[in-house]
Write a structure and sequence with these properties.
binds 2'deoxy-thymidine-5'-diphospho-alpha-D-glucose, Rossmann fold, 12 strands, binds nicotinamide-adenine-dinucleotide, 11 helices
Amino acid sequence: MTGGAGFIGSNFVHHVIGNTDHSVIVLDKLTYAGNAASLAGLPEDRVRLVQGDIADSALVDELFGQVDAVVHYAAESHNDNSLHDPRPFLDTNIVGTYTLLEAARKHDKRFHHISTDEVYGDLELDDPARFTESTPYNPSSPYSSTKAGSDLLVRAWVRSFGVKATISNCSNNYGPYQHVEKFIPRQITNVLRGIRPKLYGKGENVRDWIHADDHSSAVLTILDKGVIGETYLIGADGEKDNKTVVELILAVTGNPTDAYDHVTDRPGHDMRYAIDSTKLRTELGWTPRYQDFEAGLKATIDWYRENEHWWAPAKDGVEAFYASKGQ
Ligand code: NAD
Ligand code: DAU
């Protein structure tokens, strides 16, 4: 797999080790977003971390020869960074995915591509519609446009070269091991440090939250039963506006629910994402386990409270970066 030292990738490694007999080779560049500590404690005879770039074709070729299947999580993943410096997003999300697809083609290996609901653009707050597998692509940011491009590469390599690939597009994940640059961990760690949470604009934007462990079980289901060439949307009916999430974090930690600041909005800020995961549920029989967002959020807050050593080294730099942009 790629990107296994990142947030969702490391949750996937923990899920695979805890729930299957498989062993995993993780190819990860260990960028600012990757952290070998997220894989600490896992059995060394079943998890091997190789530090390297998915755009390094010689390394990728060597590793493809050693595995049965590849799940591709590695990406530059943060919208705010993509507005500041888009280049690494093109290198990793486009050229990196191309490099992996060429290896999947050469070695004839099963390939699963992890993508995002952001490829579909956004929905209005009062729109009853949700994204489905047939919603037209309409990405907004440099991040989401490179993810859309990578999805289209996968589709082309299936059709033109017979690569045995599937794609999943998931909504916003939360859970342990998420970098403090992202919304939920940023606000949790702000509260734990006595800093007021920062809400972009009015805080009306809606995200469709799913626990990272449910994302992992969905990916294993697709690897097991998915139809080659198909796309599956992954979501757990978790729509919440940002203001509600911040108020919940404040309430759960015993703070006044209005103790947050409104800050400069994100340029081009997508208003709402919402996933219709009927295809995955009915055709492949998947269901999410974490249906209670408040309980999942409380467990996530506890994890950050107990694992300050994991997130503290990145916190000051992230806050300085946001402060420089009025956020
Ligand atoms: P993350 O930023 O936490 O982790 C990304 C990982 O990829 C890091 O470990 C990093 O070191 C690694 N990486 C980056 N560039 C690399 C390169 N060139 N070569 C090898 N490794 C490299 O990201 P995440 O939030 O865990 O997202 C993982 C995947 O899931 C991404 O493809 C993202 O688009 C997708 N996704 C994320 C979400 C979400 O809510 N976070 C939702 C849907 C889909
Ligand atoms: O929808 C899936 C996507 O979810 C993934 O593809 C991305 O990799 C992942 O980062 C996430 O993208 P978002 O842009 O939705 O996530 P982020 O955590 O950056 O922001 C969530 C919402 O919170 C968004 O509306 C912006 C807002 N926000 C974010 C930060 C960091 C704030 O209000 N304040 C903040 O400090």
